[in-house]
């Protein structure tokens, strides 16, 4: 089979290559998936560039993918040959991710992909949608479903990003009013396409951003989904209502944040970090169920009309795909691995 691999850390152009490898055999509790699409996320290039690889001689990158089960290991009953599936954390603590024609995964990390959902959508779920789900359920709501966030207002920072896009769509499906902060009119259009009812240009400055959010939610927002805690914490604390939640999932804009202590405890705010790798497996499973339900309902979509443009690369173009994500490509980067 063809597979993208790297054996040392470094730039995508220097260390990624396509090689031929034997088709892997699933063991107990595992299944082999013929990959059709593989998603590329910021975490993939960070693993590749920063040495977060484990003790393996060779790594196939890729946490997210979608394809068809073609063989199951001993004792597996959760999935069957022919099932369409999407993956969660396929390369975490494992050397074999989704940037290959075949991948063997624990069945606990495989989720059935609804029949009407495209493989493009399936490969775009994983890290973005599950992260968004966890952020949206970090407060008083523990599961997402229609009506779960009714009457609540959610602020999504960076509404044109993949996680931001998923957060907007999931929040709207659950009944929330959504405000998204963006840096341009083009990104505002993407956030609105995803479902955000309101957008605020944060490049106008802190005061204007706060005023824009407050115009929508005079008493404050219930929840913030944050991509840049270091850059936005002051705004977030200002616009959150009493007992609000600030859920942050990345360190864009800086590795340290100065939190205003008195305003934070005066409002009884909750600060919730979000990282899938250490997330309790029960929470991962709950997210997978809710995300799949949203897909079945047609509430999670990809493509320009859903605010998430798709950028396709062949498997041999994996280095270019990594470079595109590392360079801040707007939308979702996918590897076309196999035939649908």
Describe, in short, the structure shown.
This protein is of the alpha/beta class. 31% of the residues lie in helices and 25% in strands.
Report on the structure:
The protein is α/β, with parallel strands linked by helices. It folds into two domains: about 1-125 and about 310-335, Quinone Oxidoreductase, Chain A, domain 1 (Alpha-Beta Complex), CATH 3.90.180.10; about 130-275, Quinone Oxidoreductase, Chain A, domain 1. Helix content is about 30%, strand content about 25%. It contains eleven helices and 15 strands. Strands 3, 4, 5, 6, 7, 14 and 15 form a seven-stranded mixed sheet that branches. Helix 4 (about 125-135) crosses helix 10. The chain is globular and about 60 Å long.
Q: What is the domain total for the residues?
A: 2
Radius of gyration: 20 Å
Low confidence ranges: none
Q: Structural class given helices, strands, pairing?
A: alpha/beta
Average pLDDT across residues? 97
- Tell me the helix content: 25-40%
- Strand fraction band? 15-25%
Enzyme class: oxidoreductase
Protein name: NADPH2:quinone reductase
Domain Enoyl reductase (ER): 11-335
Organism: Nocardioides marinus
């Amino acid at each position: 089979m063809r597979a993208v691999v790297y054996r040392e850390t470094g730039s995508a152009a220097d260390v990624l290559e396509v090689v031929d490898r034997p088709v892997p055999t699933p063991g107990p509790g595992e299944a082999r998936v013929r990959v059709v699409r593989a998603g590329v996320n910021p975490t993939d290039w960070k693993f590749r560039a920063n040495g977060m690889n484990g003790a393996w001689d060779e790594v196939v990158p890729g946490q997210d993918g979608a394809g068809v089960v073609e063989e199951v290991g001993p004792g597996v009953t959760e999935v069957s040959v022919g099932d369409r599936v999407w993956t969660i954390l396929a390369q975490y603590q494992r050397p074999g991710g989704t940037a290959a024609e075949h991948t063997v995964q624990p069945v606990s990390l495989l989720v059935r992909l609804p029949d009407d959902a495209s493989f493009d959508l399936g490969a775009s779920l994983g890290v973005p949608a599950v992260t968004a789900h966890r952020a949206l359920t970090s407060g008083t709501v523990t599961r997402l479903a229609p009506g779960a966030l009714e009457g609540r207002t959610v602020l999504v920072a960076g509404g044109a990003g993949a996680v931001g896009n998923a957060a907007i769509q999931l929040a709207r499906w659950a009944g929330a009013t959504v405000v998204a902060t963006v840096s341009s009119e083009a990104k505002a259009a993407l956030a609105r396409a995803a479902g955000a009812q309101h957008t605020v240009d944060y490049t106008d400055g802190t005061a204007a951003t706060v005023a824009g959010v407050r115009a929508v939610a005079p008493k404050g927002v219930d929840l913030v989904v944050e991509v840049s805690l270091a850059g936005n914490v002051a705004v977030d604390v200002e616009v959150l209502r009493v007992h609000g939640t600030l859920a942050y999932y990345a360190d864009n804009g800086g590795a340290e944040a100065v939190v205003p202590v008195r305003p934070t405890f005066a409002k009884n705010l909750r600060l919730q970090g979000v990282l899938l790798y250490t997330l309790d497996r029960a929470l991962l499973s709950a997210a997978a169920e809710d995300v799949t339900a949203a897909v079945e309902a047609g509430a999670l979509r990809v493509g320009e009309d859903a605010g998430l443009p798709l950028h396709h690369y062949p498997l041999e173009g994996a280095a270019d795909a990594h470079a595109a994500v590392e360079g801040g490509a707007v939308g979702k980067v996918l590897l076309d691995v196999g035939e649908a």
